[in-house]
Amino acid sequence: MARYQAPRGTQDILPEDQAYWQWVLGLAREIAARYGFQPIEVPVFEDTEVFARGVGTGTDIVEKEMYTFEDRGGRSLTLRPEFTAGIVRAYIEHGMYVWPQPVKVYAIGPVFRYEAPQAGRYRQHTQFSCECIGEADPVADFEIMSIAWDLYAALGFEGVQFQLNSIGCPRCRPPYIRDVLVPYLQSRIAELSKLDVERLRKNPLRVLDTKEPESQPVVAEAPAITEYLCTECRDHFAQLRFYLDMLERPYEINPRLVRGLDYYTKTVFEVTAPGLGAQNAVGGGGRYDGLVEVLGGPPTPGVGFAAGIERIVLVLKAQGITPPPLPYPQVYFVHHGSPAKDAAVAMADRLRHCGIGALVAFGNRSLKSQLRHASKVGVRYVVIIGEEELARGEVQVKDLQTGQQTAVLQAELVKWFQNLFAQHPTP
Ligand code: AMP
What we know:
Bound molecules: adenosine monophosphate
Number of helices: 15
Mean pLDDT: 95
Distance between the termini: 41 Å
Helix content: 25-40%
Number of strands: 16
Structural class: alpha+beta
């Protein structure tokens, strides 16, 4: 029989990594809640059109990376490559535009992109995505960036960098592209890579954030879009920067940051952290004032951000940051003889129902082998019941760390552990 493997670009998150995951996701939920964001769930797949329109034809995601399939009813469906378009579809479908605005929601779950897998880049990854829909105030952009900031700070990341740009709006961006960027790139077309010549034709703005080495000198000297913003976009950008400065959030302006999705307007930002190698973006986001309308809703501003959880966990490991351990039983019952085993099963049951985690040795192996197993799984206390203990209504509790052994009455075992754990809290 063939040995199956997880599909290329996917991975199993084993129990040994779950402490990282639960910690990151717990903090993400806690921080989002502090800013008034509520959880939302949306389907893992949507009508292909939701992403084709919402993410934008001409983007790498839509052109090359979507997992699109036809279901048995002949509908074209796509596994979500990101959350925003699906959440905006839900916003429109449920008439959330009549709710008090803005609607602030966050989602956590897998997203799917057919990319070339490498360290930190997967075909299924997990995003924490925060969306603030229905508010144009730059304070909303500031708060979105702050959630990202607070999360990386709470995790203890070193060397986090925020890159910030404004890519204007449908009023000022097209003239910049048409009258400034394209003529400039055309004038140096011979120096661009083949891929960027193609991009220049299809989506010239994307040339700005090219990773192609040969195009770098050209884009480094490209006229910055921030010099060509309309008054509204310029004011918005200035105000966002005012709040970031006032609250001492470090950031760098990167006039070449455009991000891969079509729907962004005004603010775009990306967060990087050392320890990841080439795939160093741990989060990114921006404003998408046109998106609700593109998906058939009323004109509605919005701003959001998404963080990649796998990459966050990689950074934690690279930076030597350890999460708090997950709860695990610290009491393990070993037994000798059938009546003792029955008593062990019953006592463990009582402990668990009083909120204390407990394990019982399965089978009827020797005491020695049970003890060996107890120390392998990493419990601190072993409760030993043999025939003699049973006859006296007692057990022996052994602290595997100190070697100390204590006789405890069976009837008092719950209370005994409750007292112990009150004094020495365990995970
Ligand atoms: P994006 O929507 O592309 O800005 O993605 C948001 C965040 O998700 C990025 O900053 C990364 O942290 C993470 N991310 C994006 N694509 C991948 C991927 N293929 N594998 C792992 N994480 C990813």
